[in-house]
Structure formats: structure tokens, C-alpha cells
């Protein structure tokens, strides 16, 4: 062999090799180079060999012939034998590669090429290692004895020199670092096959330890690509030692069991767990950390776990149920990780909640504990997962671009996991074994004290010692930002995989370790899963596909294609552990065709059903083994509430027939085991179940109708048996309430399907032999009859669905018919409130809520819980006590459970609605009821809120009074004529309250449109004047509607008490409109011939009320003589001038318009026309003296207020209006002169200014800005 110097020259010259030559003689060249490498050569020669190898491999790659390199590795390479060589190829590569990669090496070009093609060298190393073990027989030795200690050190050193390139060069050389990272993962993965696994685990830990939370996204991608490749090892499951023990003990006694601590360590990411299940522990730790990163990083982490679980499920070696159960057991800590992030899953769930849940809100009113338990549930969920207790090293990374992060790893901790410090221990058994043992666990120098936390569980549950669910820390404070919908789906998929395959005994054992709040959180995740994976239908799926097709597709870093394409691992490239995107049949590619869309719909339907079955299994298992926990407080506890919510979710979310059959079976089992929760104490659960079952009785699918009828019948029968065969009062009442709710929400029930369901229930009762001879069949028939009565009574509702006034009238009459059954009356009032709020009628909605509050208060008064009832609301509305005081304590109220807590909630809701209605003045009266209740409870926070709200309301009153911008509505008299169309409404008059400033034309157009749609355009005619209608002159084939604007009417005494605009628009029941006429039949004439007809209408109730229209019950007509008309007109003018002149700030434009119309001297119109007609000495004797004198007094007042207004105007005009002011002054003087001559006395002179003290005082107060008069007409 030549000298080293000569050899180096030859190797340097080899760089000039032609590509054709290299390809033609590639096996020979490479064999010679690898053989030369194994001789006892100097360091320089070794490095030259490596450089030549890198150069040749790079040439081949650039020529696009990398397949011949793969063929060489697979079929040609043979490590030189020991006889001829002193060293092995893998040892020499392990020696020279680190030297080549040292930071002080300036040959960057060679290093870059090596990084790009590192996979070739690492595969040669692995094959050399395998051949070495086989040829030497060392394959039969213990793993820690197979390779020399020196070789172990070289591998470790190789990793140490490679890591800085991956960590620091990813920006400059993204492709090279990516390839190097994958190659390194492949190397370590194969090392697990041949070497001491404890040693390789230490290397893996060393790799992962180089990364930190808050690293750039690329580094996170590298880390998870690495972990993904490592976890793709064929013996991954064996490495992670699925646990065997799973003792089940009663939940109350778990603390006393000596095995409890050991079991707990297997159920969370504890030190022991990570020691026994190193790879999965490391993976879960990293995913847990990544959940605190940005979305792209989170997605990579979650996808890694999802694809790994998919692999397990599709692995034909593990298709046995027991095997999958063992596999799922190593992922149990994932359950805890999901629970810790529960609040981040929930926003997506909340936004997609189905509308069917509105009935829950209606039920709140009559359920004493529903709100309370809901609050408890929420609070326990929020604080449910105990704060992580971390006893390892914390290192704040302040340079993180994302946030101040925490390094989770501690080198000594992970050293123990990887088994460092083992001396001559069996690190694991041979490669063929199914299990793998990490020795020396007892020698670990890391100790970890058991962490115990105390949780005070509400509802009287005693404090119990609980292990912290997490023994690793994720972040100093929990993340609150919400996860994306796609992330949530993947997280839930992994969660459901674990739940699906875990053995029943393991799930039960896990539940036994959980606190109540954690159980609640667990089932909340199950509930969220049901909503996330609900089947939305083929159309929606196709629409989603079309919407998403335009979006750029993400490159997927997955080990598996999408679910629909079965994986083919036989074609996997030996150079990579991941399938590349272009080789993957992605979901997007497949579903572009119609058949793909159908297939996608089928997949989603199957997924929805599978998720539902997993959830049902969980519910059934919990109900069987934790009966005592569910029946605590007779079922009035948060866990029962949560489980029941999930059962109802199945009926609310669209499900397949197959799944619903299982759901009904589950509900039957629940009903048989938990009748106490349904029939004793609170009625909310029973009521909600009745509502959903009745909805299903109306289903288009006959199988669902039959199942729901059978369950509803079983519910009735169970209720009957529960009451010792005395009756089924609760189910009876709740069914009627549910029917009423459904009709209130305009769900059509009066159809053949629902009638068929009722008949089916009747037939069950008739044919039930066990129940014959009891009163049960009669009770069932009576309930059926009541349901049909309600259906008939509400058939009109659908007919008048588009007529809001008529619909509310019908609902009101139904509510009144249930006066003795508070819960039913409550239901209809709730429905009316919802309809009013939807239409923007907030005053009426507020009245409905106030009536509900009064109903509750009256019940509590009768039960002697409170001293006051509906009468306490008299100061708010005179209607309330009139309607709500008819309650009696009889059979109708025995099953309701109003409490002071619910009354407070309702009163707070009333306050919100009154504010929306802008009736701020009523809040003071309302809070006089609320405040004493909070004072008694010493709830100072609530009191502070009350007074704050009151202060804001008072400020609002001041603001709207000054601005005049509050509009409390307008009133119109509506009369209907036409017996062929209006039936009982024919000839009936109503007062309609319309919102804001609805004009006469607007309400006329609305009514015309409404009734034209109902009766036909040609059959409806509007009467737009207020003249009395002669019915005999009307066409019987036409529907006539007369619309007249009316204003609230008060007599003089009442007007003195109603000074503000609000007082003149609240609790009003008298209205007025006026019609001018003359004795000779004309409408208009001269003042001396002009008469006026004043019509005063009184309504049945005061406005505002729970209805927008109220029937007129009394009509009075007054005819005013010409002089009385003049008196009325002049009083109105004086009032108008006072309103504009004596209220600050003054509206200048309005003031000038009023002045101009009042002092303009016109003989035939205005004030002077009235004076000329009735005060002229020649004409006045024709009229009563008292009326003439009264008119004179009014004119004197008129002159005074005109003078005051003129003076105010002089202070407010702009410089260019002085001439206009002079004209007004001259007109005023002319008016005074004319009136003086008519009255025969001087009306006004400058000398007499001082004699008008009242108006002067008013003038000065106005000029100074004081407000001395606040009434408005």
C-alpha cells in the first residue's frame, strides 16, 4: 500500500473522475474506498476518503441517479471481514465524520454536501453494524456488550457535532438541515434495533434537550419530524411497556389503597410514567409544551400524535381488542392534557351549539337548581384541572419571540429516564422480544416526592387528597387563547381513540382517581366531541369542499395518508420515515369528484356514529359503576346534570338511525336506574327529556317515532310506579309544558305523524297487562286528550304566524287559561317575551318578564318564603297584580320549584329588559325589591352593581330629558269592519302601541300589506279619516280597516301628577282623538261655526302591557261648541309657547316659528280670528258670559307668554336677525292694539311690565339657564 502522502494525492486526483466512469464502476469504487477506510490509516487519509465519497455521491445525486446508490446499499455493500481489516466501516465513519463536521473545519462546501446526503453514510453505518453483529455472533450478546465503549462515545460525539448545524443553520440551509435532521432520526431509530436502548434513549433525550419552547417554527418541525421517525420503529409499542396493573376499587376508598400511588403514576406524566414509557412520555411532553405555541406549531404536534395513533389502529399486528387496549393504556396521560386545555376547546363548541337548546332557557324559570348547578358546574370546570406542580428546574427563556417560556427538561431527570448510571445492567432484551425492560430504575438518583393537593369540592363533598393530575409544568400561567376548529378535531380524535380502546377496568380506575371537577371536565370533552363530529349532511359537506377548494393546500408532514387511502408501507422510501406529499392520496385530491364527495359524506357519517357510540359506552359505563355519585342530593348535582346534558345532546344533534337506536336503549337503562333523579325534587331533568322525546315523536322517521313513543310511555309508567301508583303528575305537567313550548316556537305538531305517535302511546297503555286494573290507562288517555286540546287551541297560531298582534293575542289567551298552573303560564309568557324581543318591542318584552317575576313572587308569598307578592309591582305597572294575583296553592303548583335565587335572577333580567326599553324611571322601583334581598344575603358585590346600575339609569334620565331624543312610542286607534273577514273582531276597536316615531302612513301600510296577504289585495280597504263609520253603508265583501292617530288623555287633576314625558307615556289607558265638524255638514268653517268632536277611548289594560294592542272597552264623545273650540286652541297655543320658551336650552328655530305663528296679525286666521269672533263687544253677548271671560283670561296669558318669548328671542338672535326681531316686535304691538280694542282694555304696555311678575321671573330664570318647567305635551 502506498504511503499516506501518496494515498492522499491519489484520493485528491479521484475528484476529477468522470460521471460516466463513476456510474459504470460505482460498486467497485465504493467497495474499494470503504475497504481502504477500514485499514490502519492516518487521520488525513481517512478524511480524504470521506471527501471523495461525498463528492462521488453528490455527482450521482445531481445526475438524478440516486436509485443506484440505494441499490448499492441494499444489494452490494458488504463490510470488509475482520481477517483483512483492523477496523469496521461503521467505526471508521463514526470516527472521521465528527472530525469532518467540527466547527473549525472551513470546507463549508463539503460539509453542505454531506448534510444533503448524510442519509447514505448513516445507512452504510447501520448496515455495517448489522453485518458486524451477524458475522461476529455478537447478536447473541447483551445489547450493552455488542459494541465497544469507544464506539458508543463516537456515536454520542457525532450527535453532538451535528446538532449545532441543525439548530443554527436552518435559515441559511433549509434543505440541507432538513435532510440531516431526518437522516439523524433514521440513524437513531436503527440504533434502537442493534444497540443498548438505554444509551440510544439518552441520545434521543440529548437531541430533544437542545430545543426550547418558543423556538422558531422550523425547529419545532424538525423536532416533531425526528420524534415521528423514532416513533415509527417497528418495536415502538414494545419499547413503551404497556402496563398490566389496573386495580379497581370503590371510588371512596382509593386513597386507602397502597397501590393507588403506583396506579396514579401510570395515569399522568409522572417521573415513573416517563421512566417506564420513555418514548411516549417524551412525545406527550413535547406535544403538551407545543400546545402553548402558535397555531402552526400546535398543528404539527397534534398531527404527529394523530398519525401515530392511526398507525396503531391500522397495524395488522395489533388488531386484537386486548392488544389495542394495552396500546391505548400508554396514552392515558393524553386525557389529562386535554382536560388541562378544556377551556381552549370550548369556544369552538359554544359557537356551534345548536338552536334546539332554547328550551333549556325556558326551563330555567321553573327549576330551582338548574341555574345553581350550572354555575357550580361552570366554576368547577374552570378550576377543575389542578394547577400543575413542578419540582424540576425552571429556566426562563426571555429571548423567546413568542413569550417568556419555560424549559421543561432537566438533564438529571431525563438521565434517569434514559437509564444513565447503569452499570452492567440489562438495558433491554433481544430484538425479537415483545417486551423491553429498562434496568436500573431503582438505581435512579432522582427522587420525587408525591404531590398531594387538596380540592374543596362544592355541594358538601368532603375534601379529599388528590394527586395532581400533572406532574410536569407547561407554562407559568395557563393559556386562554382558543384553538382552531381543525386542531380541536384532531385533539378530540386522539382523546376518543384512547377512550375507545382502553379496557373498561382501566377507564373505571382512571375515573376513580379523578376529582368531581375532573369528571365534569371529562364529560364536557365528550359533549364537545358530539357537537364537533355531528353529521351535517351531504349538501353541507359538498359546500364545505367547494369553499375549501380555492385555498392553498398545506404540505402535510404525516406518516400516513388521509384515512380514506389505506397506507402502503411496502413502498416507503428507505431514505425517509415519512411519506412525501406528492406520493400521498390526500383528502383534497380525492374529493374533487362527485364520487369523492359521496365518499367523504359517508366517512363523516361513519365518524359521527363512531363518536356517538364511544360517548354512549362512556355514559353507560359511568352510570353502572358510579351510581352513588350520580344520585348524590337526589340527582341534583353537577355530574348528573352533565351526563343528562350529553344524553339530550344525542337527541338534539342530527344522528343516524343506527346510533339513535342505541341512544334510546341507553336512555331506557338510565330511566330504570335513575328514576329518583327524574321524579323526585327538581323537575328540570324530566321536563327537558319530555321536550326532546316529543320532538322525536314528530320525526319523519317512523323508527325514531316508535322508539321515542316507547320511551315516553316508559317514562309515564315509571312515574306512575314511583308515586306508588297514585298518578303521573310530573310527566303529565312536563309534557303539556313541552307541547306548549314547541307550539310557542311554532314547531308544527298538529300533523298525522304526531297524532300517530299519540295513538301509539295510547295503544301501549291499553295493551299493557301489568297496568290493567289500575288508573294508569285512564291517566295516559287524559294526558293524550289534554295534548290534543292544546294542539287544537293553537292551530290558529300557525294560521296567524305572520300577524304578530294576533299571534301574541292567542298566546296571551293561552297564558291566561293556565293561570292556575304557573309553569304553563310561565312558558307562554316566556314565549311572548321572546317574540316581542325579536320584533324590537322591548317595552312589551320587559312587561312579560315582570309578569313572570310577579308570578314567582306570588308563589313564594303563598309558600311563606316572602312577605310580598305580585302587589309589590303596582308601582311599576298597574296591570301586574291584576293578572298575577289569582294563584292558589292547589294541585297545579305542587310540582314547581321557584326559589328566591330564581326570583332574583328573574328580577335582574327584568332590569336588563327595562333598560333596553329605555324605561329607566322604573329601575328605581324594581331595585327597591332587589336590594333588600341582597342586603339580607350580605352580597355587597351585587349591591354595588345594583347601585351602579341605578346611578347610570338616573344619568340616562337626565340625558334623555335634556335631549328629548327618547321616543317611547306612538298610539293608534285601529277599527275593523267586515264580518265575512274579521268574524269576532268585526266592529272591534283596538289601541295599537307602535315603536318610536311610527307614522300614520307606516302603520297603515303595514296593516294593509298584512291583511292583503291574508284576504287578498282587492278585498282590503283602508279608511284614513277619523269620521264615525256608518256600517250600513259599507260593502260586506270588503274588509275595512280604520286607522286614527290618538294621544294619551288626562284630566286636569291627573295632568298635575304626570309632569314628565315618561309619566305621560306610562300606565296610560285613556286616549283621545278629535274630529272637526259643522252643523251644516261641512268639515271646516269660520271660527264662529266650527265645532269639534272629541272622542275619549279607555282600554282594558294600561300601556305598556304584555301585548302591543289592547281592546277598547269604553268610548266617550264630547262635542265642543265654537267658543269651546277657541278656548281649547288658545290654551294649546299658550302651552306650546311655554314649552318652547321656558325650557332650557331653548330651541331658537322652534321658538321663532311659534312666535311667528302667534303674533302675525291676520283677521281670518290664528289668535286674532278667535278674538274677533268671540270677544268683539258686538258679538260676545251671543255666548255664555263665563266662557267669554275664560277666553279673555287665556288671551291675557297668551300676550304675556308672547312677550316673554320675544324677550328671550332678542337675547338669542344673531346679528343679521335684528331686522327680523323688529318685525316681530311691530307685529306684537299691532296684536296688542287689536286685542285692546276688542277687549276694551289696555292689554300690554311697557309701563306695565313690572305688573307681570310671574312671567318676568320666568323670563329671567330662562335667560339665566334655570329650568323651571319640565312638562311636555
From TrEMBL:
The keyword Aminoacyl-tRNA synthetase does not apply. Residues 816-1244 form the DOCKER domain. Pfam families: DHR-2_Lobe_A, DHR-2_Lobe_B, DHR-2_Lobe_C. Belongs to the DOCK family. One of its GO terms (molecular function) is guanyl-nucleotide exchange factor activity. This is Dedicator of cytokinesis protein 9 isoform X5. CDD domains: DHR2_DOCK_D (cd11694). InterPro entries: DOCK, DOCK_C_lobe_A, DOCK_C_lobe_C, DOCKER_dom, DOCKER_Lobe_A, DOCKER_Lobe_B, DOCKER_Lobe_C. It comes from the Eukaryota. PROSITE patterns: DOCKER. Keywords: Guanine-nucleotide releasing factor.
Amino acid at each position: 500500500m502506498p504511503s499516506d502522502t501518496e494515498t492522499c494525492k491519489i484520493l485528491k486526483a479521484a475528484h476529477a473522475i468522470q460521471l460516466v466512469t463513476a456510474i459504470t464502476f460505482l460498486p467497485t469504487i465504493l467497495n474499494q474506498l470503504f475497504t481502504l477506510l477500514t485499514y490502519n490509516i492516518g487521520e488525513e487519509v481517512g478524511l480524504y476518503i470521506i471527501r471523495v465519497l461525498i463528492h462521488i455521491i453528490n455527482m450521482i445525486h445531481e445526475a438524478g441517479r440516486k436509485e443506484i446508490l440505494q441499490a448499492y446499499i441494499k444489494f452490494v455493500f458488504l463490510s470488509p471481514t475482520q481477517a483483512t481489516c483492523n477496523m469496521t466501516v461503521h467505526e471508521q465513519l463514526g470516527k472521521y465524520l465528527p472530525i469532518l463536521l467540527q466547527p473549525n473545519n472551513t470546507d463549508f462546501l463539503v460539509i453542505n454536501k454531506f448534510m444533503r446526503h448524510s442519509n447514505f453514510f448513516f445507512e452504510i453505518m447501520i448496515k455495517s453494524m448489522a453485518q458486524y453483529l451477524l458475522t461476529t455472533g455478537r447478536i447473541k450478546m447483551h445489547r450493552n456488550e455488542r459494541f465497544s465503549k469507544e464506539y458508543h462515545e463516537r456515536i454520542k460525539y457525532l450527535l453532538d457535532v451535528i446538532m449545532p448545524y441543525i439548530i443554527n443553520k436552518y435559515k441559511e440551509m433549509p434543505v440541507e438541515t432538513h435532510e440531516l435532521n431526518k437522516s439523524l432520526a433514521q440513524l437513531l431509530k436503527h440504533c434502537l434495533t442493534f444497540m443498548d436502548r438505554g444509551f440510544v434513549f439518552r441520545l434521543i433525550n440529548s437531541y430533544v434537550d437542545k430545543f426550547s419552547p418558543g423556538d422558531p417554527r422550523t425547529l419545532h418541525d424538525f423536532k416533531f419530524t425526528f420524534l415521528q421517525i423514532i416513533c415509527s420503529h417497528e418495536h415502538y409499542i414494545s419499547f413503551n411497556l404497556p402496563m398490566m396493573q389496573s386495580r379497581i376499587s370503590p371510588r371512596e376508598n382509593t386513597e386507602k389503597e397502597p397501590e393507588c400511588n403506583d396506579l396514579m403514576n401510570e395515569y399522568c406524566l409522572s417521573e415513573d410514567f416517563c421512566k417506564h414509557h420513555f418514548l411516549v412520555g417524551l412525545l406527550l411532553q413535547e406535544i403538551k409544551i407545543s400546545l402553548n405555541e402558535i397555531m402552526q406549531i400546535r398543528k404539527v404536534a397534534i398531527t404527529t400524535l394523530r398519525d401515530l395513533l392511526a398507525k396503531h389502529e391500522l397495524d395488522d399486528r395489533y388488531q386484537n381488542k386486548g392488544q389495542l387496549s394495552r396500546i391505548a393504556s400508554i396514552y392515558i396521560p393524553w386525557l389529562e392534557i386535554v382536560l388541562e386545555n378544556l377551556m381552549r376547546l370550548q369556544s369552538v363548541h359554544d359557537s356551534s351549539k345548536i338552536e334546539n337548546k332554547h328550551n333549556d332557557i325556558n326551563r330555567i324559570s321553573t327549576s330551582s337548581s338548574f341555574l345553581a348547578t350550572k354555575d357550580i358546574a361552570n366554576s368547577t370546570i374552570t378550576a377543575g384541572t389542578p394547577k400543575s406542580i413542578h419540582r424540576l428546574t425552571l429556566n426562563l427563556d426571555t429571548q423567546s419571540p413568542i413569550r417568556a417560556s419555560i424549559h421543561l427538561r432537566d438533564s438529571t431527570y431525563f438521565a434517569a429516564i434514559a437509564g444513565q448510571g447503569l452499570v452492567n445492567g440489562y438495558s433491554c432484551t433481544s430484538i425479537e422480544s415483545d417486551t423491553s425492560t429498562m434496568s436500573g430504575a431503582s438505581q435512579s438518583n432522582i427522587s420525587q416526592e408525591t404531590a398531594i393537593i387538596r380540592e374543596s369540592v362544592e355541594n358538601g363533598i368532603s375534601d379529599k387528597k388528590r394527586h395532581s393530575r400533572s406532574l410536569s409544568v407547561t407554562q407559568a400561567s395557563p393559556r386562554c387563547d382558543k384553538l382552531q376548529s381543525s386542531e380541536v378535531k384532531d385533539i378530540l380524535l386522539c382523546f376518543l381513540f384512547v377512550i375507545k380502546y382502553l379496557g373498561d377496568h382501566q377507564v373505571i380506575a382512571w375515573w376513580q382517581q379523578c376529582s368531581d371537577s375532573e369528571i365534569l371536565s371529562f364529560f364536557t370533552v365528550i359533549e364537545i366531541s358530539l357537537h364537533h363530529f355531528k353529521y351535517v349532511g351531504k349538501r353541507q359537506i359538498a359546500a364545505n369542499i367547494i369553499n375549501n377548494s380555492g385555498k392553498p393546500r398545506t404540505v402535510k408532514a404525516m406518516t400516513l395518508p388521509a384515512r380514506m387511502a389505506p397506507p402502503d408501507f411496502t413502498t416507503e422510501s428507505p431514505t425517509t420515515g415519512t411519506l412525501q406529499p406528492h406520493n400521498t392520496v390526500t383528502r383534497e385530491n380525492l374529493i374533487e369528484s362527485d364520487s369523492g364527495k359521496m365518499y367523504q359524506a359517508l366517512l363523516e357519517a361513519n365518524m359521527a356514529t363512531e363518536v356517538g357510540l364511544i360517548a354512549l359506552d362512556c355514559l353507560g359505563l359511568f352510570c353502572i359503576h358510579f351510581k352513588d355519585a350520580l344520585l348524590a342530593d337526589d340527582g341534583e348535582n353537577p355530574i348528573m346534570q352533565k351526563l343528562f346534558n350529553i344524553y339530550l345532546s344525542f337527541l338534539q344533534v342530527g344522528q343516524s338511525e343506527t346510533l339513535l337506536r342505541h341512544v334510546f336503549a341507553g336512555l331506557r337503562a338510565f330511566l330504570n336506574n335513575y328514576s329518583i333523579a327524574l321524579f323526585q325534587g327538581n323537575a328540570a331533568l324530566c321536563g327537558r327529556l319530555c321536550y326532546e322525546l316529543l320532538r322525536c315523536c314528530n320525526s319523519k322517521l317512523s323508527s325514531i317515532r316508535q322508539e321515542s313513543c316507547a320511551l315516553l310511555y316508559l317514562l309515564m309508567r315509571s312515574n306512575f310506579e314511583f308515586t306508588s301508583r297514585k298518578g303521573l303528575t310530573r310527566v303529565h305537567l312536563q309534557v303539556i309544558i313541552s307541547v306548549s313550548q314547541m307550539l310557542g316556537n311554532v314547531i308544527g305538531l298538529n300533523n298525522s305523524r304526531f297524532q300517530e305517535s299519540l295513538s301509539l302511546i295510547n295503544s301501549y297503555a291499553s295493551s299493557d297487562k301489568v297496568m290493567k286494573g289500575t288508573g294508569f290507562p285512564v291517566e295516559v288517555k287524559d294526558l293524550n286528550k289534554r295534548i290534543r286540546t292544546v294542539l287544537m287551541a293553537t292551530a290558529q297560531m300557525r294560521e296567524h304566524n305572520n300577524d304578530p298582534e294576533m299571534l301574541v293575542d292567542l298566546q296571551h289567551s293561552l297564558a291566561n287559561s293556565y293561570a292556575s298552573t304557573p309553569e304553563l303560564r310561565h312558558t307562554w309568557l316566556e314565549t311572548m317575551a321572546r317574540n316581542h324581543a325579536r320584533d324590537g318591542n322591548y317595552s312589551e318584552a320587559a312587561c312579560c318578564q315582570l309578569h313572570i317575576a310577579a308570578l314567582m313572587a306570588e308563589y313564594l308569598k303563598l309558600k311563606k318564603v316572602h312577605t310580598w307578592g305580585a302587589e309589590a309591582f303596582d308601582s311599576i305597572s298597574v296591570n301586574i297584580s291584576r293578572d298575577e294575583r289569582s294563584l292558589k296553592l292547589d294541585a297545579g303548583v305542587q310540582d314547581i320549584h321557584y326559589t328566591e335565587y330564581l326570583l332574583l335572577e328573574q328580577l335582574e333580567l327584568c332590569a336588563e329588559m327595562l333598560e333596553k326599553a329605555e324605561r329607566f324611571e322604573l329601575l328605581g322601583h324594581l331595585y327597591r325589591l332587589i336590594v333588600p334581598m341582597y342586603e339580607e344575603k350580605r352580597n355587597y358585590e351585587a349591591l354595588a352593581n345594583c347601585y351602579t346600575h341605578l346611578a347610570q339609569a338616573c344619568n340616562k334620565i337626565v340625558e334623555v330629558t335634556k335631549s328629548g331624543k327618547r321616543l317611547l312610542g306612538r298610539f293608534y286607534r285601529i277599527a275593523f269592519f267586515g264580518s265575512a273577514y274579521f268574524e269576532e273582531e268585526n266592529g272591534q276597536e283596538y289601541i295599537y302601541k307602535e315603536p318610536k316615531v311610527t307614522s300614520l302612513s307606516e302603520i297603515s301600510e303595514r296593516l294593509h300589506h298584512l291583511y292583503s296577504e291574508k284576504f287578498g289585495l282587492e278585498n282590503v280597504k283602508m279608511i284614513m279619516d277619523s269620521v264615525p263609520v256608518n256600517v250600513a253603508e259599507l260593502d260586506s265583501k270588503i274588509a275595512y280597516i280604520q286607522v286614527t292617530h290618538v294621544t294619551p288623555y288626562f284630566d286636569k287633576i291627573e295632568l298635575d301628577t304626570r309632569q314628565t314625558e315618561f309619566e305621560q307615556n306610562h300606565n296610560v289607558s285613556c286616549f283621545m282623538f278629535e274630529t272637526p265638524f259643522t252643523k251644516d255638514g261641512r268639515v271646516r268653517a269660520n271660527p264662529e261655526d266650527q265645532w269639534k268632536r272629541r272622542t275619549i277611548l279607555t282600554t282594558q289594560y294600561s300601556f305598556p302591557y304584555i301585548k302591543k294592542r289592547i281592546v277598547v272597552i269604553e268610548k266617550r264623545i264630547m262635542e265642543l261648541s265654537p267658543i269651546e273650540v277657541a278656548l281649547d286652541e288658545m290654551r294649546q297655543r299658550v302651552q306650546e309657547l311655554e314649552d318652547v320658551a321656558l325650557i332650557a336650552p331653548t330651541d331658537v328655530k322652534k321658538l321663532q316659528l311659534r312666535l311667528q305663528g302667534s303674533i302675525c296679525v291676520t283677521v281670518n286666521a290664528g289668535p286674532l280670528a278667535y278674538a274677533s269672533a268671540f270677544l268683539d263687544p258686538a258679538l260676545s253677548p251671543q255666548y255664555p258670559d263665563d266662557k267669554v271671560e275664560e277666553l279673555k283670561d287665556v288671551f291675557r296669558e297668551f300676550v304675556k307668554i308672547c312677550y316673554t318669548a320675544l324677550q328671550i328671542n332678542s337675547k338669542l338672535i344673531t346679528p343679521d336677525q335684528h331686522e327680523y326681531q323688529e318685525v316681530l316686535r311691530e307685529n306684537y304691538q299691532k296684536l296688542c292694539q287689536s286685542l285692546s280694542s276688542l277687549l276694551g282694555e289696555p292689554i300690554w304696555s311697557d309701563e306695565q311690565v313690572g305688573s307681570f311678575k310671574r312671567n318676568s321671573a320666568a323670563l329671567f330664570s330662562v335667560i339665566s339657564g334655570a329650568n323651571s318647567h319640565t312638562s311636555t305635551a
